[in-house]
Amino acid sequence: xxxxxxxxxxxxxxxxxxxxxxxxxxxxxxxxxxxxxxxxxxxxxxxxxxxxxxxxxxxxxxxxxxxxxxxxxxxxxxxxxxxxxxxxxxxxxxxxxxxxxxxxxxxxxxxxxxxxxxxxxxxxxxxxxxxxxxxxxxxxxxxxxxxxxxxxxxxxxxxxxxxxxxxxxxxxxxxxxxxxxxxxxxxxxxxxxxxxxxxxxxxxxxxxxxxxxxxxxxxxxxxxxxxxxxxxxxxxxxxxxxxxxxxxxxxxxxxxxxxxxxxxxxxxxxxxxxxxxxxxxxxxxxxxxxxxxxxxxxxxxxxxxxxxxxxxxxxxxxxxxxxxxxxxxxxxxxxxxxxxxxxxxxxxxxxxxxxxxxxxxx
Length: 362
Ligand SMILES: [Ca+2]
Fold this sequence. Notes:
Helix content is 4%, strand content 25%. By secondary structure, the chain is mostly beta strands. It has a domain at 18-176: Jelly Rolls, CATH 2.60.120.260. The longest helix has 15 residues, at 2-16. It is rod-shaped, with a radius of gyration of 43 Å.
């Protein structure tokens, strides 16, 4: 159990923030706009994160603008900054970090101060006493600055800061990632992701994020996060959906989500993408929703009804709904009525009856 406890203590800082704590190596210095007697600026970099007032720096009660500045000694790639502010106890009367409302975190870069973060807490809300602020930039100097005059204070137009520790996390220039690996010389090395990957030539406008994902969509013909997969060949205009590669529409004559299936014998040449049904008639000789079933061969002129294949007329010599039954061989001209097979022109020779299948009496 003792061993487990020790492992937990060692691992915890790595879990919360595994970038380099830049001031860990004693190179940083700190200043503040003014100092209340006994509360020097150095306390913000003394590696003591206790937040009781006598462990903290404290500006005096005469500033209209208060600031606390940390000099890292040289330029670094900064990722985030953690600020520990004075707070004492959890009771209602205990000291709270109300003077931290509206503070800004600024970095000095290219000869000027740039704002990384601005708090927007309004009275009576209180900011958290531990601020973890993203600040992805290159800089040597950082400062917490405020002109905020808290209504809790009776003093007029006074800004005060009581910061106990400022931790700056990042890497040496040219390095990135939780273990500050080398960027290996690339430009635009991101503190989190390192060197930008080459975008696929099929990203719209050639732009992608640090993982290579095309943010603006894909050029025609490609899909996928990185636009490196080809659309199916029969998509209309070669355009398919970026997330799944399905065609939005098919070129004439094809259907299915990937437009691989050929339409049947639709007279328009095209069919519905989801089921292949023809919107209009079938070509002569076919029936069915997809017009892919041939009409019965004894339909006159190969014409039949789209719904069920019913022949419009029968070829001479056949009768019945589907014109499957031959007329009696004893009908003159082989002609019979469709409905009942009765011979139209009468019977040959010695045959009698409606269908000419009875013999005349001798
Ligand atoms: Ca401290």
